[in-house]
Design goal:
By secondary structure, this protein is an alpha/beta fold. The chain has 14 helices and 16 strands. It is 40% helix and 17% strand. It is globular. It binds zinc ion. Keywords: Cytoplasm, Glycosyltransferase, Metal-binding, Transferase, tRNA processing, Zinc.
């Protein structure tokens, strides 16, 4: 039996639907202000986006970022978060925050983590003492953080696991853990709990899990357990199957997705929200995300390239000084990129801006009902030749009525 539906601290206003694909544009009203959907959410590990201040993140137009419960729970810790009144105050961030449950971080960071019905058992990275993250503890931590969107603790295993019995157990356990999270949640009137659909790459398991999760009537719904090295066509089938079964008027969040082509295809398959550490992590390796692909500015071909990182980019690095920006050139990044912090900082600003701007353009195209044309233009810029288009993207988009290969 599903428990009584919980209150919701969000509203979802659908602004437009693509007449060909499953793409939607909406405004998500959260406790710390409106958020345009579709959206990419930068990941601010340890309550600071590596290389960016909250002001810079705000200037880039970010209105919803992601914090890690695992990191905040270790430092500053729950008592400090309670004393200061949550993570918004702790990091001077006036906009919205989404937190993960902490479970994925533990399973991926701590080799000795072990999942039981009670929760995730692990050894403290501080003193090696045994600890247990239960659904109740995860929600309690997220209640102290005060994030606008909180995630259920789920039993997540890699999608490429061939063990169907374990996959089924993880899916069913995630449903039982959602019920425990709902029971433990103290502030449903100001924090929105999202469920997480599991089931690996097995579409029947995904359908069963979706039905169970939808019956719990949480304010938003996530599709989890993906981005674990599975083939992209298998990924697309899972997203397409799940979104086909979800209620129209709730936000849909696909966890761990951030490559530009994955974002635009996932939107066409009916997803609204995404997060990934890749745009900021790759900046630390000298990589700039542009409409024509990723450029490694550590490459000597850029040593005398005095153009901006990307022509026409409105980020503070790329804008000229006359235009109120820094007027940073590719050659400058090339020369400072060995000195880790400066180059990484500048590229992080550019990459975050790129991702946020991409989603703004996606949203405009959906509202004006020209998303199929947008997709063709996007892939046309990214690959100089149609023969180079990734097969999975061509197939997935054909499945929702867009033929990238036609003129
Ligand atoms: Zn830029």
């Amino acid at each position: 039996m599903a428990p009584v539906p919980m209150p919701s601290a969000l509203s979802f206003e659908l602004l437009g639907k693509c007449s060909v694909t499953k793409a939607r544009a909406a405004t998500l009203q959260l406790p710390h202000g409106p958020v345009p959907l579709p959206i990419f959410m930068p990941v601010a590990t340890q309550a600071s986006l590596k290389g960016l201040t909250p002001e810079q993140l705000e200037d880039a137009g970010c209105r919803l970022c992601l914090n890690n419960t695992y990191h905040l729970g270790l430092k500053p810790g729950q008592a400090t978060l309670d004393a200061i009144g949550g993570a918004h105050k702790f990091q001077s961030w006036p906009h919205n925050i989404l937190t993960d449950s902490g479970g994925f971080q533990m399973v991926s960071l701590l080799k000795l983590a072990q999942v039981t019905e009670e929760g995730v058992r692990f050894l403290s990275p501080h003193d090696g003492s045994p600890m247990l993250l239960t659904p109740e503890h995860s929600i309690s931590l997220q209640n102290s953080i005060g994030s606008d969107i909180i995630m259920q603790l789920d039993d997540v295993i890699t999608t490429t696991s061939p063990d169907l019995a374990r996959m089924t157990e993880a899916m069913e356990r995630s449903v039982r853990w959602l019920d425990r999270c709902i029971q433990a949640h103290k502030y449903p009137e100001r924090q929105n709990l999202f469920c997480i659909i599991q089931g690996g790459l097995d579409l029947d398991l995904r359908r069963k899990c979706t039905a169970e999760m939808v019956a719990r009537d949480t304010p938003g719904i996530a599709i989890g357990g993906l981005s674990g090295g599975e083939a992209k066509d298998a990924y697309c089938k899972v997203v397409d199957t799940c979104t086909g079964l979800l209620p129209e008027k709730k936000p849909r969040y696909v966890m761990g997705i951030g490559y530009p082509e994955d974002l635009v295809v996932s939107v066409a398959l009916g997803a609204d929200m995404f997060d990934c550490v890749w745009p900021t992590r790759t900046a630390r390796f000298g990589n700039a995300i542009t409409a024509r692909g990723v450029l490694n500015l550590r490459n000597a071909v850029y040593s005398e390239d005095f153009g901006p990182i990307e022509e026409g980019c409105r980020c503070v690095c790329c804008r000229s000084q006359e235009d109120g920006g820094l007027g940073i050139t590719r050659a400058y990044i090339y020369h400072v990129t060995a000195k880790e912090t400066t180059g990484a900082h500048l590229l992080t600003m550019h990459n975050v801006q790129y991702q946020l701007n991409l989603m703004r353009l996606v949203r405009e195209a959906i509202i004006e009902d020209r998303y199929p044309a947008f997709l063709k233009e996007f892939f046309g810029k990214l690959y100089d030749d149609k023969s180079k288009y990734p097969e999975w993207a061509v197939d997935a988009l054909r499945g929702v009525g867009v033929d990238l290969l036609s003129d």
